[in-house]
């Protein structure tokens, strides 16, 4: 049984992430998507539980996918779920440098390999950071995120969290 582990901050989960998960389901028997903290990034918009809920709704159509949201090391999750490989999406060369470094560190720590799925060009400009910014100022991001995430962003910024 092959198990892919797809980690990320997913703050919030968007259509580029969804594409990577959907394509991974075609290559692995099951896929675990893990929302984790990225200590390199500033304060999160959604807490881990909120992210898990949105992701579960957004991927309800994918029966081989499960979701975890934990504040721990990725390699601990890889061990826990018995991952065959870590899978990440690559949008552009600019993603590669930090992804390569994390892949090498994770392999040194655990022996687990990282595999990359290149995102389609229609998704390559989508970034959670930009979605947060556009949504914060009232822009429409519904073309870039699954409906549950769109609803959560609207609610968040209706509350006046500028
Ligand atoms: O979506 P991101 O922010 O590129 O994902 C980065 C993430 C969350 C996968 C990375 O920061 C991570 O693995 N965080 C968990 C803590 C950890 O294991 N850090 C060591 C990374 S080599």
Automatic annotation (TrEMBL):
Keywords attached to this entry: ATP-binding, Coenzyme A biosynthesis, Cytoplasm, Magnesium, Nucleotide-binding, Nucleotidyltransferase, Transferase
UniProt signal peptide: none
GO terms under biological process: coenzyme A biosynthetic process
Entry EC number(s): 2.7.7.3
InterPro entries on file: Cyt_trans-like (IPR004821), PPAT (IPR001980), Rossmann-like_a/b/a_fold (IPR014729)
Boundaries of every Cytidyltransferase-like domain copy: 5-133
Chemical reaction(s) catalysed: (R)-4'-phosphopantetheine + ATP + H(+) = 3'-dephospho-CoA + diphosphate
GO MF annotation: an example: ATP binding
Alphabetized Gene3D superfamilies for the sequence: HUPs (3.40.50.620)
A Pfam family that the UniProt record links to this protein: CTP_transf_like
Listed name of the protein: Phosphopantetheine adenylyltransferase
UniProt source species: freshwater metagenome
